[in-house]
Amino acid sequence: MKNYLLLCGGVGGAKLALGFSKILAESNLTIAVNTGDDFKHLNLKICPDLDTVLYTLANESDLSKGWGRADESWEMLGALKQLGGETWFQLGDKDLATHIIRTQLLADGATLSQVTQELCSRFGVQSKVLPMSDETVETYIQTKNRLLSFQEYFVKFQCGPPVTDFVFKGLDKAKFNPLIDLEAFDEIIICPSNPFVSINPIIQLEGLNQFLKLHPERVNVVSPIVNSQSLKGPTSKIMHELGLEVSVNSIANFYKDYASTIFVDELDNDQLDCLHTSGFKTFTAPLVMKSLQSKIHLAQSIVGFLEGN
Amino acid sequence: MKNYLLLCGGVGGAKLALGFSKILAESNLTIAVNTGDDFKHLNLKICPDLDTVLYTLANESDLSKGWGRADESWEMLGALKQLGGETWFQLGDKDLATHIIRTQLLADGATLSQVTQELCSRFGVQSKVLPMSDETVETYIQTKNRLLSFQEYFVKFQCGPPVTDFVFKGLDKAKFNPLIDLEAFDEIIICPSNPFVSINPIIQLEGLNQFLKLHPERVNVVSPIVNSQSLKGPTSKIMHELGLEVSVNSIANFYKDYASTIFVDELDNDQLDCLHTSGFKTFTAPLVMKSLQSKIHLAQSIVGFLEGN
C-alpha cells in the first residue's frame, strides 16, 4: 500500500479525508490541514478547518450545516448576545469546549501540532491530522474597498464583497509542518477544497512549495469544480470575480506547476481533451460526496487508479 | 440619606446588597466585593463573588443553588467532560458568556473595575459594584497537609480538609480600590459573609485597613452567625477547626479593631450582654434572608437603626 498525504481545507477536504480514513491503514494516511482561516475570537483560538476535519473524522460533525458539531446548542451565544457581545461567529456550546481546550493547551506552551494530536486522541480520531504549519499564517481577502480577514469575509460578510486578490500574512516566515516528512509519501492528494483560500496557503509554504514543483508526478488534484460549478462555498463566485472561467481547466491551470494528475467528474468530460493538451493525466469518477458510501467510493477510485488496480 | 459602603463576599453579602439596592438611591450605595476567590480556569478569568453579586442584583441568579445563573444549561461542560477536560468547577453555558466577555476585556487592557462596571451596565445593574482592588489578591487555605487555592478548597474538596490558617498572596502589594473614596461614606456595612475568607482579604487591604481602625464608629457588622450556626457555607466549620466558639461573640471579637456596631439575630439574644461588655453597640433584627421581602426588610432595619428612625 502506498503512503498518502492529503492537503485539505474545510468541508470538501474533510469529506474526502473521511473516505480515505475508512480505506487506508492509519500508518498510510496523513492529513495536512489549512490554518490560514484560524483566528482569535473572544480570546479563543479557533481553527475552523482543523475542527471540520476533526469533527468529520470523529463522526461528530453537523452533516446538514457542514460545519460545527452535531446536536449542538447555542446557550452561551444567546447569553453573549443579551450582553451585547460579538455573535457574528456562531459558537455552539459543544464546539466551545474544543476551543477552550485548544486555547488552554496553547497558553500552556503546546504547539498547534501537539494540540491537534491531543484533540484527535480525545475525539478518538486515529488518523494522523496535522496543521499545515505551527507558525501563524493569516489569510486576508482583498476586496474592492478593503482588506478583510478570512472569517470577516466568509462569515460576517457571507462572501459578498467581490474579491480582487488574497494576502497571506506570515506566509514568508512560515514553514510546512516539519512533522510531515514529504519524502515518505508516494502520493499527494490536493483535496476538493477552495484553491485560492484553502489550498494555496498550504502549497505556498516553504518546504512544501519546492517539493511539489520538483515532484509534480506525485501530486493529484481532486477537482472542486463539478459540472462547471463549485459544490460548496465561494469557489466559483471567486473565479468569476477574478475573471477566470469556472471550469476544471481553470483549476488544472491553477495547479499546473504542482500537479500532474487531475480527478474529474463525469459531468466535466468535455474538459478532458483540453486537460490532456495541458499535460495532465486525468481520471474520471463521481466527485459528489453526499453519503458516507460516496466518500469511501471516491477514495477507493482514487487509490485504485493510483495503485494501478 | 446617608452614604453606605457595603463590604461583601458571595451569597450572603449579595442577598443583603440586593436588599440595600432596593431601598437606597444609586448614589447612596457602593458595594465593594471580595476578589480573593478570583482565579483563572481554562484560560478564563472567573470572579465568583463579583458574579454572584452581579447576577443577584440583575435578578439573574439561581436562587436554589445560590450561585450561577437562573435557567442555566451545561452543554459546554458536558462536551468538556467527554474530551477529558477539567470539570470540577461548574461552568454553565450562560455563565460562560460573562467569563468570556470579562476575559476578553481584560486582555484588551481594561482594569477589573472597568470590566465590572461594563458588565453591570450590560446586565442593567444600576448599583455601583466594584472589586475590592484592581490588584490581584489570591486566597489560599492552609490545611493540615497542604496549601489549597480557595476554589480547590471550596469546590474541588467541598470544604472537607480541616483549616489551620489562611494566606492572601499579593495582599501586601494590593491597595483598596481607589475609585472608592472612603471619606464619602457615613456608614460601612460588613455583610454577613465568611469573615475569614470573604471579608478579611478586603479589610486587610492597604487604605481600607487603616481607615477602619481610625473610624470603627462608622463600621457595622451584620453577623454571619445566626443561632450559633453559619447560614450557608463553611464559616461555622472553619470556626470549629480554628478552635473558636461558633457564636456572634466570636464574630464580634474577630472584628473588634474595625467595627463598633453588630447586628444580631433574635435567636442570639443571649449574646447581647457579652457583646456590650466588649464595647459593641447591638441591634437585633431577623437576619435570615430567604425571600426578597426579608432582604429588603433587613436593609430597612439596618438603615432605620443607623439613621435613628
UniProtKB/TrEMBL annotation, chains A, B:
<dbReference type="GO" id="GO:0000287">
    <property type="term" value="F:magnesium ion binding"/>
</dbReference>
<dbReference type="InterPro" id="IPR038136">
    <property type="entry name" value="CofD-like_dom_sf"/>
</dbReference>
<protein>
    <recommendedName>
        <fullName>2-phospho-L-lactate transferase</fullName>
    </recommendedName>
</protein>
<dbReference type="Pfam" id="PF01933">
    <property type="entry name" value="CofD"/>
</dbReference>
<dbReference type="InterPro" id="IPR002882">
    <property type="entry name" value="CofD"/>
</dbReference>
<keyword id="KW-0460">Magnesium</keyword>
<dbReference type="InterPro" id="IPR010115">
    <property type="entry name" value="FbiA/CofD"/>
</dbReference>
<dbReference type="GO" id="GO:0043743">
    <property type="term" value="F:LPPG:FO 2-phospho-L-lactate transferase activity"/>
</dbReference>
<keyword id="KW-0808">Transferase</keyword>
